[in-house]
Amino acid sequence: MKAFESTSKYFHRAADLLEIDDHMRQALLMPRREIQVQVTIERDDGSLGTFVGFRVQHNKSRGPMKGGLRFHPEVDLDETRSLASLMTWKTAVANLPYGGAKGGIGVDPKQLSTRELEHLTRAFVDQIHDIVGPDTDIPAPDMGTDHLVMSWFRNQWEKYHGFHPAVITGKPVEEYGAVGREEATGRGVGTLTIKTCNRLGMKPADTKVAIQGFGNVGSHAAKFLHESMFTIIALSDMTGTYYDPEGLDMGAVLHHKLNNPDGTLHGFNRCEVLPVDDLLTLPEIDILIPAALGGVINASNVDHISAKVIIEAANEPIEPDADDQLNERGVTVLPDILANAGGVTVSYFEWVQNRQHYRWTLDRVRQELDHTLSNSFEQVWQVAQSKNVSLRTAAYYLGIGRVLNASKLAGMTSV
Ligand SMILES: NC(=O)C1=CN([C@@H]2O[C@H](COP(=O)(O)OP(=O)(O)OC[C@H]3O[C@@H](n4cnc5c(N)ncnc54)[C@H](O)[C@@H]3O)[C@@H](O)[C@H]2O)C=CC1
Ligand SMILES: O=C(O)CCC(=O)C(=O)O
């Protein structure tokens, strides 16, 4: 199933519950604007490299549109549209004053030199600078992009429009970034995992966790959960699955990643090393945290998933049919639009700080993050109980309801 078809399926389930008519559904689902651009750079060897870039602005009923930039070979218009719609519901679930957008370039950033990556980012800004801005659409990091890409983006955008660091979030801390943004998505995933365990009566010390993806989100989630006494039995990245049924030595794992020139777990040999895809179907996992690509839990592997709880750190990691099967089996799934909302929440804090020319401490960022996520979690849990629906449908119900309400209050043409 294509990505936008999947997220639309979830949308319609909640829209049925909200009794939204077909015309309004169409207005809420269809993106406001979709842009596809050519991004051409001169490669280090003097040849030309041509790539395709996208920005999809989905909805602005609740505020300026917000969402990350993904650099990955599989980026295309359909995926970007789907991710942009997720941002609309996610910012609403977290009750942030934003709409939703997403962008990216179809490129493998690992195949580019730092110079080429910088030129690519700047060339992309040259194409889209007039449709983004601190009050219209504010990008941020996602898969394959980091604080450096954000810094180049801001610098190039300011060449056209003048000083305004709030045009993008996830910047380096020295360059108007927020302390705590880098860890925020993973920390939020960890915080919400604990809340889910509390509700289900699961004790951290007796709970085995496996995490797919050991980049920004996966590594911070693993660190937080390890420090909270969970046993991390498996981790994976593009180089393989690293497995110890007794619990990985997380100090050694993190040290290895930090000191590996390519930032992967390649060469870590203090545990069993298995093929990449084995992580998802390992036996005796209590909590599975997909923190890499979309669509990884699907018809081909859902029967072999042993986890009782799945926390969607990645965006759209479960295909709808597999999601239905998991629900039928009683697996608790904390959906992406709640589970990974910590990132955009601290992006919001960064934007607020930029606009006020003021800096928060790490303690304040963490406290307010915890507060925002706790509220959203309690609200989603409560809707799930009262309507007798899955946590995913409850989260969509809450998010779509808020967007609908804002559109109605402003007059329907504001969607
Ligand atoms: N960075 C952020 O603040 C946010 C990220 N997300 C989502 O979290 C997910 C991960 O994003 P980041 O950590 O930022 O990306 P990243 O680029 O920092 O890390 C991605 C990780 O996934 C691994 N990976 C790629 N393909 C894999 C495969 N087939 N099997 C196992 N591992 C694989 C990579 O080796 C890397 O360790 C994405 O779905 C993203 O949309 C969601 C909210 C915010
Ligand atoms: O930090 C942000 O603004 C957006 C992060 C993002 O792209 C996401 O939550 O999927």
From TrEMBL:
For the biological process aspect of GO, one term held by this record is:
L-glutamate catabolic process
State where substrate binds. 66, 90, 347
CDD domains in alphabetical order: NAD_bind_1_Glu_DH (cd01076)
UniProt cross-references to PROSITE patterns, sorted A to Z = GLFV_DEHYDROGENASE
Residue numbers binding NAD(+): 185, 216
Q: Where is the active site?
A: 102 (proton donor)
Q: Name one GO molecular function term.
A: glutamate dehydrogenase (NAD+) activity
All copies of domain Glutamate/phenylalanine/leucine/valine/L-tryptophan dehydrogenase C-terminal, residue ranges: 178-411
Which controlled-vocabulary keywords does the entry list?
A: NAD, Nucleotide-binding, Oxidoreductase
Xref: InterPro entries: Aminoacid_DH-like_N_sf, Glu/Leu/Phe/Val/Trp_DH, Glu/Leu/Phe/Val/Trp_DH_C, Glu/Leu/Phe/Val/Trp_DH_dimer, Glu/Leu/Phe/Val_DH_AS, Glu_DH, NAD(P)-bd_dom_sf, NAD_bind_Glu_DH
Q: Where is this site: Important for catalysis?
A: 142
Instruction: Please report which protein family the annotation says this sequence is part of.
Output: Belongs to the Glu/Leu/Phe/Val dehydrogenases family.
This one is known as Glutamate dehydrogenase
* Biological source species: Stieleria bergensis
